[in-house]
Design goal:
By secondary structure, the chain is an alpha/beta fold. Helices cover about 25% and strands about 30% of the residues. The N terminus is likely disordered.
């Protein structure tokens, strides 16, 4: 945006200035002098006064149009100052200093804030939050910070960015940074340089720590891959940062080093040893040997004998992990309510030399590292509600980024029938869990009656459970929500009440998020609405209703319940304990009479899983069953069915899905019925990221495939399915991976040798990293030396990072990982005063640099700090501008009308004397002379007089020739002797005042004579 500077070419009036954004348009004002020159003679008929007035209006109109084109602005100049205090609340700052900074801010505001100045407070750790917005008052902080922060990091850059966005426009701006300067996220200096450009000043109050002891457990190192039964050294690196004067025995710190080993759900103590740690860095080595195959995590912890020898406890723990490879391992997850259904398949895998570990769905795994010992995870008829969203995400990342296998077996509680639709796991499968063609399978209908507002966070939980139930429905299913609104009416949440989910899912979820249900007094109105809605559905194969309540509403009438039962509507009820015990006889009877299920809930967190389970009733039509049986057909000779010839034994059912439209999807087995081939998949597979995923839509023999258990190829088929899905294994001995954490970056080094132990050069290595947040990060590796490849990725989050590297196309990927034990927040001991000094030295635009104030130390003395006024007015005054060109344009439009009016309309003021006379007569009480009314006789007399006068004038002018025939002037008579010159000028009186009469027409002379007669007659 271009324009005039605020101090150049701007008119100042009090606290306002006029500025122009496009000042070059002012050159148009040079047109005004020529306008006067050319228009002055052209406007002569207007008379002298109207002509001047018209030209002045026209000049003013041009001036206003020109000013509007310049985008004129009104700029207000403010003398206010806004100061925002940025308080570092990270855990690296001791509690006494954090309390002292609160006292400092309160005292500073009370002592130095002036008039209309504003003060505000922003606190920060990993992120920033506004504790007190900018306010023109002596605001005061409470001793306890109210904002919720992650204090494991220091992100000063985020605080500066938030402050920059929080300042008001009509005040000068200054931030006061109260911090130790040890940022470990963001770039505060780069962010502050933007402040200087905007004229924002920066003052700094450093935080200095007392001289204290500190012990860091820097890392635990173990080989990334081990061989079963081979010994190895586990190393623990400890650093004693205590000064020589501290601690005991010349600075040494005495404590206990505890090492534990965890694999799966088993935890074992490896070592517990008393050590004396002298100042400096020490490495402790422990000899270990592992006899069992698995993925192991080692945790080391240092416990000082004297707490004062160690300032921060957060940096006393570190982890490392390793893997002992053996035969392929499979994690087999089954439903905890139906254990043993897949015993026949588990036995078959054992005979195929596959090690299987069976776990129930509710005790599956809790961390991503627990999945690393398994090459494949099998979901055997596990419903959606058994796993959390985080666990589902771990399964998908383990396959997509870490190369693990994923197999889902079909039964009534799997795929779409198990509530897995619209989950992230559906995207990892080669089939979609919903049927897109409505003619393939009848649809289901679900109605939810919401009444639970009196439980703790009732509205939140109602929205959460309704959303989870919605996710389990397919696009052909129907859904409706009944609630008691704030207008004391029981009504549907949308219209029509029961609507198709397909195409409306987002709108329905949005309505649910805005729902505010009230305390429903009666069940009958909602039940009747649901009955009417279900009665209008002719093609719904399953009609199900879920009622959540605390049991307070009046019970439904027997007629209403009977009507629902006649419509084959099942009603499941959920009783929540809002007024005592959760049990409710009303809800229990309602569920029993309609064939539904009754739940008693004492913890609201259990509600989403209940609604997911109940929503699966609507998805049951996705299961196709045929008691007569049918044999799957081979569609593609995949590796999983290699060696299986002839007709397969018949099955009696499977879960219907939709094959994904992706060239990577390979369908090996299909069912002969029903519908199109796209929905009849029995066995499908594809490569998903670095791993493989398999969908087997029938079971393994306990229900639909009971005829398969005695089949001779049973072991071969399921063995080949699982083995094909396993994580690929290569000769990892040729690749050695090392990792190191330094300054928030994880550095990865790969040394590659071929089978001849020669350097492996020019490999196109690529990698993927999955961090603690389960988000994939790309890892780029470049060759830096013969056989050596290096890369790095950000590693500031504490936790485990899993690395999967693909050496080259066609080569098996290699795995590694690293553990970041704690944030860099707990590594620093001294304030970063160099960074803080750079912030204070920044020169704000048109203002003075900030000040580096005395530090807040362990003594908490505030007098030196309060001697510096952070509310000093040494910054450029703030300006706020407002466009006024549109007002100028409106005024110019009004003047355009005036300009036309002056030039086209002649205004007579003859009425003014008469009006003044009447006003004077009324004021002084004099009689008003009423003019005699004109009559027809007077008019005729006057007309006759005028006619006579005209005839006289015409007679005196008859001797003149007409205009179209100009006569030669008569010859001048000869002058007689003694005749004077004056005789020459004698002429009739009528023609004496008519110069050049011979040039005028007869009509003009007649008109002039008529005007003269009117004038003489008064």
């Amino acid at each position: 945006m271009t324009g005039c500077p605020l101090r150049e070419g701007a008119a100042t009036m009090f606290d306002y200035r006029i500025t122009f954004q496009s000042p070059w348009y002012l050159l148009l004002l040079l047109v005004i002098p020529p306008l006067w020159w050319f228009s002055f003679r052209g406007l002569a008929p207007l008379g002298p006064y109207r002509r001047i007035f018209a030209l002045a209006l026209r000049s003013l109109l041009l001036l206003l149009i020109t000013v509007a084109l310049t985008e004129v602005q009104m700029v207000r100049i403010s003398n206010r100052l806004a100061v925002l205090y940025l308080l570092d609340q990270s855990l690296s700052i001791p509690v006494p200093q954090r309390q002292a900074m609160i006292r400092y801010v309160n005292d500073e505001i009370r002592q130095h804030r002036q008039n209309d100045d504003l003060a505000g407070v922003i606190v920060f750790g990993r992120d920033a939050a506004i504790e007190i917005p900018p306010f023109d008052d002596d605001v005061q902080l409470t001793p306890l910070i109210e904002s919720l922060l992650d204090q494991d990091f220091t992100n000063l850059s985020a605080a500066i960015r938030l402050a920059q966005a929080s300042f008001p426009e009509d005040a000068a701006k200054r931030i006061v940074v109260v911090s130790d300067g040890n940022e470990n996220l963001g770039d505060a200096l780069k962010q502050a340089q933007g402040l200087a450009k905007d004229g924002i000043g920066v003052d700094v109050v450093p935080i200095r720590y007392e001289r204290r002891g500190e012990v860091l457990l820097e890392r635990v190192t173990v080989p990334g891959n081990l061989r079963k039964g081979y010994p190895f050294d586990l190393r623990v690196v400890l650093s004693n940062l205590a000064d020589e004067a501290g601690g005991e025995a010349g600075g040494a710190v005495r404590g206990t080093l505890v090492i534990r080993r965890r694999t799966g759900q088993h935890d074992r103590l490896v070592s517990e040893e008393k050590i004396d740690l002298p100042p400096g860095k020490r490495v402790y080595s422990i000899r270990q040997e592992v006899d069992q195959v698995g993925f192991y995590t080692y945790e080391a912890k240092f416990l000082p004998d004297r707490p004062e020898d160690d300032g921060m406890k957060q940096n006393n723990v570190a982890e490392a992990f390793t893997q002992v490879r053996g035969k392929g391992q499979v994690l087999f997850l089954e439903d905890n309510e139906n254990p043993g259904q897949y015993a026949r398949m588990i036995e078959a895998l054992g005979r195929q030399n596959v090690e299987v570990q069976v776990r129930s769905g509710d005790q599956a795994f809790n961390r991503l590292d627990e999945l690393q010992q398994f090459d494949t995870v099998v979901l055997a008829n596990v419903p959606r509600e058994r796993l959390t969203d985080a666990q589902i995400q771990m399964l998908v990342r383990n396959t997509q980024q870490l190369g693990g296998g994923l197999v889902m077996l079909g039964a009534p509680d799997s795929f779409g029938a198990g509530g897995w639709a619209n989950t992230e796991l559906e995207r990892a499968m080669p089939v979609d869990f919903q049927i897109q063609a409505a003619k393939v399978v009848p649809r289901g209908a679900l109605v939810m009656v919401m009444h639970a507002s009196e439980i703790a966070q009732g509205n939140f939980w109602q929205k959460a459970i309704a959303e989870e139930a919605m996710k389990a429905l397919g696009p052909n299913d129907l859904c409706g929500v009944i609630h008691y609104d704030n207008q004391a009416a029981t009504k549907w949440l949308w219209n029509p009440g029961i609507a198709s989910v397909g195409g409306n899912r987002k709108v329905m979820l949005a309505r649910i998020s805005r729902m505010v249900p009230g305390d429903m007094p009666h069940f009958d109105p909602g039940m009747n609405l649901a009955r009417q809605g279900f009665a209008s559905l002719a093609d719904a194969a399953v009609k199900h209703m879920i009622v959540i309540s605390d049991g307070d509403p009046s019970p439904p009438s027997p007629g209403t319940v009977q009507a629902l039962a006649e419509l084959n509507v099942t009603v499941s009820t959920v009783a929540v304990g809002a007024h005592g015990p959760a049990g409710s006889r009303i809800l229990e009877d309602l569920a029993r009479q309609t064939g539904g299920k009754y739940y008693e809930v004492r913890n609201a967190k259990a509600l989403p899983k209940i609604f997911q389970r109940e929503a699966r009733r609507v998805a049951q039509p996705l299961v196709y069953e045929n008691a007569a049986g049918f044999s799957p057909q081979i569609r593609f000779p995949h590796e999983m069915i290699r060696g299986i010839d002839g007709e397969l034994p018949p099955i009696t059912g499977y879960v219907m899905t939709t094959r994904k439209e992706n060239p990577l999807v390979e369908v090996s087995l299909i069912a002969p019925q029903p519908g199109s081939e796209r929905n009849r998949t029995i066995l499908a597979s594809w490569t998903y990221g670095l791993g493989r995923a398999v969908a087997f839509t029938t079971d393994a023999g306990f229900r639909y495939a009971a005829n398969w258990t005695g089949w001779e190829d049973y072991d071969k088929l399921f063995g080949q399915i699982v083995v094909w899905s396993m994580r690929p294994v290569g000769d990892e001995g040729q690749f050695m991976i090392s990792t190191e954490v330094d300054d928030g970056q994880v550095h990865v080094v790969v040394n590659a040798l071929d089978r001849k132990d020669e350097f492996y050069n020019f490999l196109n290595m690529a990698g993927t990293v999955v961090g603690p947040d389960l988000k994939p990060v790309e890892l780029k590796l470049k060759q830096t030396a013969p056989g050596r490849y290096q890369g790095s990725f950000p590693g500031r989050e504490a936790g485990s990072y899993f690395v999967m590297i693909s050496p080259a196309p066609g080569m098996a990927p290699i795995r590694s990982g690293v553990n970041v034990p704690y944030s860099d927040e707990f590594r620093s001991r001294a304030a970063n005063e160099a960074l803080l000094g750079q912030l204070a030295s920044l020169q704000p635009k048109d203002g003075q640099p900030g000040q580096f104030l005395p530090a807040i130390d362990e003594f908490g003395r505030l007098e030196p700090l309060l001697a510096v006024d952070t509310f000093r007015h040494t910054l450029a005054r703030a300006t706020s501008s407002q466009d006024i060109w549109h007002l100028v344009a409106l005024l110019s439009a009004c003047l355009l009308f005036c300009d036309v009016f002056v030039r086209r309309v002649q205004v007579s003021f003859a009425w003014a004397p008469a009006l003044a006379g009447r006003a004077a007569a009324r004021l002084f009480g004099r009689a008003v002379e009423v003019p005699q009314a004109a009559t027809i006789g007077r008019l005729r007399s006057r007309k006759a007089e005028v006619d006579d006068r005209l005839r006289h004038l015409q007679a005196s002018a008859r001797f003149e020739a007409p205009d179209d025939r100009r006569a030669e002037p008569p010859p001048e008579p000869a002058r007689q002797p003694g005749q004077t010159e004056s005789l020459k000028h004698e002429a009739p009186p009528a023609l004496a005042d008519q110069p050049a009469a011979e040039d005028e027409s007869y009509t003009a002379r007649l008109l002039r004579a008529k005007k003269k007669a009117w004038k003489e007659e008064g």
